[in-house]
Amino acid sequence: MNRFAALLDRLIYTPSRNGKIRLLTDYFRETPDPDRGWAVAAITRDLEIRSVKLAAIREIIASRVDEVLFNLSRDYVGDTAEAAALIWPERHGANRVPTLTEVVEELNAASRTEAPKLVEAWFDALDADGRWALIKLITGGLRIGVASRLVKLALADFGNKEPQEIEELWHGLEAPYTDLFAWLEGKAEKPTNAMLAPFRPVMLSHPIEEGDQDRIDLATMAKEWKWDGIRIQLVREGDEARLYTRTGDDISSAFPDVIEGFSVNAAIDGELLVFDPNITEQFAVRPFNDLQQRLNRKKVSAKMMASNPAFVRAYDILWCGEQDLRRAPLSVRRARLEALIGPGLARVDLSPRLEADDWQTLAHLRANPPIDAIEGVMLKSLDSEYVPGRPKGPWWKWKKDPRLVDAVLMYAQRGHGKRSSFYSDYTFGCWQGDELVPVGKAYSGFTDQELKKIDKFVRDNTVERFGPVRSVRADREFGLVFEVAFEGLNRSTRHKSGLAMRFPRINRLRWDKPSGEADNLTALEAMLPPE
Amino acid sequence: MKPEALLHPTPKGLYCPPGDFYIDPVAPVDRAVITHGHADHARAGHGAVLATPETLAIMAVRYGEGFTQQRQALPLGEVIDVSGVSVWLSPAGHVLGSAQAVVERQGTRIVTTGDYKRRRDPTCDAFEPVACDVFISEATFGLPVFHHPDTASEVRKLLRSVEQFPERTHLVGAYALGKAQRVICHLREEGYDKPIFIHGAMQKLCDLYEELGVSLGPLETATVERGKVEKSRFAGEIVICPPSAIQTTWARRFPDPLPVFASGWMRVRQRAKQRGVELPLIMSDHADWAELTDTVREVDPAQLWVTHGREDALCRWAELEGRQAKAMRLVGYEEDGE
């Protein structure tokens, strides 16, 4: 348990992805089975402890700590779990530090009356970090900034395998994953995924950049819209149906409407979108914002499903009944897909083909899509096999040009890790009369050289400091103007400006532009989708 | 006599009317007793300063030789009479030279701890409890959530990280007086014998520690020769610097610096996260909750007065223990100063 606690502790404070991966692989190397497998399950949230809840932990604390002292402490620390872990007055005795495996197995075997007694005894045996890890394990919300995708990358790195191999196996595996670790360490064959409706690693595209057009023969390419939803894989195998994200996370429980509306035995590659429930003759796609409200939830309410119903717009098929289609060319797969989906299923329809024989026509389509929820066009070689990963050549994406606005730097925040000595996160605003209203925040799009210059500007023109944040001089006469690029704009009640940008980044530094000539808020408001 | 007549708070600090002197005054006064050399306790510009020889030496290094008109060195344990008030100093275990100030008159004895801790510190004498009527205790970490872990295991965390990330420079933020030298000594105790790099601001105090008999092993200044890019020289090295230096442009001379901070505040995750610390080392020169409460029980004073820090919780604890206690709100001390 101590090693697991130490790992969590390091992961929380380590901002860099590679740093986290190294901490994880070191842990896998040094920790025996089945402890390391339970740790993986805890981090990927594939572990649920039912015999103890947070309320029981509060009671355990109250049995030993004065309430006034606990409240003073919690107010100071700002987090109940952490305050509880720190304040626990250890009773020294014959307590032995439990392993992670003992904790998991004993809690799972214990009844609701037995479990709190176990926890109390472990609290005495563990130190503050150990108790914190135990509470986090029990309550299920680790919040350590590690997505399950990162754990899979670390596992791949540890075993010197391709991440896709791990993703493909993942949902067929069960904690504590001893068969997986045996394979990763070269001690056993690759485990076979016997699960129904497994995930199949997805094929990704490259952006079209300058010069690429000359190398692409449009006549050999299928053209489609690039939908502004999220890439998913929808699989049904008999009674078992699952919806996966492109990294293989299972999000079926958040989209029962889609699962139910997909009745055929197949693995479909497509875009998850939300439609307008008032229009029945076809799926009228709603903006990304309406989809966002359904993401990152474990469960979904009936009300939400009625107001924001979801469907899948299919563009590829990987498996059909008994047959794996991934080695077949796209043209063949497309024909199978059309035959299968036909005019549409309850919650699945076809992504239409676009006609464009030359780049000019395509450019026109790209620049003038019929609805907001399209972010560009896709080109896919008709003879391409379905290859996991991002092979260069067969698939291309050509996104709409971003929207641009000139905004004035208002606040700068220190970065993390490599950037901890730089003010690298910027809040910028547009004019409303003589006042700047914050419209967004960005921390990318500039070179290291430019970062140094902005950092110097921030240090030289600081007006006020609030912890890691500085406000900089920004008025009609003086200020730094950024040309900000972003993908779209939504209404937002959470921001003073009433709007929220998608993927804002610094496009250009406008050292030359007087701050008073930056854009007005009204310019952004004009870009909002109709209400 | 009533203890309040012997020592009571004023805007300039704790004042002793019969002896006409202040303890750790926050503004210039004629006569001051200084418990230790940290800037919020030891200020320049007093008429006369009475302190341990080490504390006087530290003040001279920090403020220059002219920091006071008259220095009076009082070695630990020696008693002097100041206008009918007996005054002596007893070790506080906080930093080199740190002392508790004991004042006594007509059978009433008050101990002012200044800042103190109880665990072993290789750079200074250990705290010695003094029986008294009134014990004026600091309460910087006066909440039951503060249990400072074993120092050696915290230092081993640092060494382990250096092993795990050999291409990065570990930048250890530590206060220039006390904490920096303590970190160095503990590193040496763990067998780390490579040169340790120090920020320029620490040079004088490290030299003074050596002079006063605290051996720090090989130290080098963390400088880069002008015009020469030789970042790689610091890969895998440990650099000790003032905490504020980690966020300055100074830190950019090192390859992918990994920010470390040695402080008791690192116990609270949110604090560490806020500062962008990647490796928090929970290492304090102040007593934690158990040390505070154990010390009060050991000294067993008739009254406990609590100052700078979280007075509420320690007073609540005293109430639960059936002890007489009051919060004494002295202004001018850095509650977060560590």
Question: Could you describe the 3D structure shown?
Answer:
The complex is a heterodimer of chains A (531) and B (338). By secondary structure, chain A is of the alpha+beta class. Among the domains of chain A are: 206-399, 2-Layer Sandwich (D-amino Acid Aminotransferase, Chain A, domain 1); 403-525, OB fold (Dihydrolipoamide Acetyltransferase, E2P). Helix content of chain A is 34%, strand content 23%. Chain A contains 20 helices and 19 strands. Chain A has helices at 2-13, 17-30, 35-43, 54-62, 67-77, 80-87, 100-109, 114-125, 128-139, 148-159, 163-170, 178-184, 212-215, 256-260, 288-292, 302-307, 330-341, 359-367, 448-460, 521-525; strands at residues 206-207, 221-227, 230-237, 240-245, 266-274, 310-320, 323-324, 348-350, 374-381, 395-399, 403-414, 423-432, 435-442, 462-466, 469-472, 481-486, 488-491, 499-502, 505-510. In chain A, the strands form 4 sheets. In chain A, strands 11, 12, 13, 14, 15, 16 and 19 form a 7-stranded antiparallel beta sheet that branches. In chain A, β12 (423-432) and β13 form a beta hairpin. Chain A is globular, with a radius of gyration of 27 Å. Chain B is an alpha/beta fold and 338 residues long. Chain B has 2 domains: 3-145 and 286-327, Metallo-beta-lactamase, Chain A (4-Layer Sandwich); 151-281, 3-Layer(aba) Sandwich (Rossmann fold). Chain B is 23% helix and 25% strand. In chain B, the strands form 3 sheets. Chain B has a 7-stranded mixed beta sheet with strand order 7-8-9-10-11-18-19, covered by helices on one side. In chain B, a hairpin with a 2-residue loop joins β7 and β8 (85-91). In chain B, α3 packs across α4. The mean pLDDT of chain B is 93. Chains A and B meet through α1, α2, α5 and α6 of A and α6 and α8 of B.
Question: What is the third-level CATH name, the topology of the largest domain in chain B?
Answer: Metallo-beta-lactamase, Chain A
Q: From the alpha carbons, calculate the radius of gyration of chain A and give it in angstroms.
A: 27 Å
Unreliable stretches of chain A? none
CATH superfamily of the largest domain in chain B: Ribonuclease Z/Hydroxyacylglutathione hydrolase-like
**Number of structural domains of chain B:** 2
CATH topology of the domain at 206-399 in chain A: D-amino Acid Aminotransferase, Chain A, domain 1
Which two chains share the most extensive interface? Answer: A-B, 36 and 38 residues
CATH architecture assignment name of the largest domain in chain B: 4-Layer Sandwich
Strand content of chain A: 15-25%
Give the name of the CATH architecture of the domain at 206-399 in chain A: 2-Layer Sandwich
- Secondary structure tally, helices of chain B: 8
**CATH C-level category of the domain at 206-399 in chain A:** Alpha Beta
Q: Give the averaged pLDDT of chain B, no decimals.
A: 93
